Amino acid sequence: MDALVNRYATVYQKCRNQMMSLGADGPILVHYQALEPEHLNVTTTVANPNAHRHRHEHLAWFWTMDIPKDTCANDWMSECIFQVHWLRAKSQRDRCCEEVELLQCEMSWTKNFFLHQANCWQALNQLAESSRNYGLQCYSAHQHTMYTCLAAQFE
Q: What sign has the CA pseudo-torsion 37, 79, 1, 28?
């Protein structure tokens, strides 16, 4: 596939150079821009817009070219490209909203875990106090204080 793309790119560059040597002016050369190496990356963005990892890819300029000047009569290609870009932007926005929601839930879950651990250590502290196990009582009091302080940082 890359060999075929390189072959057509070479033909395009030769044709563009010939147009320039024949005196093509600015308005014509605007439509036939120079190809950069990043334009030649083979991508399935147009063929398969649902494929993974297309979030940071951008279509090369020639996907939006209007060579036959018929976009007024037949704009299916520009509409398709617009829809692909709109869907990309919408999916990126949706991912950001989902990420915010997940982070808020994770913060709540973490706080609840710390409070649960504080309650467990407090119960163990009371049990150690009633059994006069001073070592466990001291350690559980320390753990209870630590988890209570960690939970307090979420407020």
A: negative
Residue 41: other Cβ atoms inside 10 A: 11
Give pLDDT tens digits for 123-150: 999 999 999 999 999 999 999 999 999 9
Q: Residue 43 CA to chain centroid, in angstroms?
A: 17
Tell me if 135 sits within 8 A of 98, measured CB to CB. no
**123 token code pair:** 């119960």
Question: What sign does the dihedral 12-18-21-24 (CA atoms) show?
Answer: negative
pTM of the model: 0.47
The residue behind tokens 């040597």 is 21
| DSSP strands (E only) in 21-109 | none
